[in-house]
Amino acid sequence: LILMGSVLLVLGTVPMKNKIEGKNLVVKYIIGKDVIDLSDAVFLPVPDDVNHNIIRVGGTSIGRKHSGNFKNIKTKTKYKFYLTGKGERTYFEIGTTKYLVDGI
To answer: How many whole angstroms separate alpha carbon 65 and alpha carbon 9?
Structure first.
């Protein structure tokens, strides 16, 4: 049961496809989806520190697929990643929350 629960948890947090529908970003997982309202998003160039010294503090990392909360251990900057491993990366901020997504 523990193994089956772990597999379902991982499959439910591995992003398969990111897509913009209207003013929302829809992150589709193997099981389920998240919808992020982009109406207040500020799109910016991808910061350099998002590529170095990043650790996972909650979420999943399988190969090039990453989802959840990540942190740069040197700058202490926190990010939310929704990376499918497909397409160009896009960075945006909504309030104080920083997002990195790809494939949109």
So the answer is: 15
- Write phi, then psi, for 52 (nearest 5 degrees): -135, 145
Contact 15, 62 (CB under 8 A): no
Q: How far apart are CA 1 and CA 14, in angstroms?
A: 20
Tell me the two tokens of residue 76: 């202490």
DSSP 3-state of 9: helix
Q: What is the rounded distance in angstroms from the CA atom of residue 69 to the CA atom of residue 58?
A: 5
Give the chain's residues under pLDDT 70.
7-11
91 near 49, Cβ under 8 Å?
Answer: no
User: What is the model's pTM?
Assistant: 0.86
**Whole-number average pLDDT of the chain:** 89
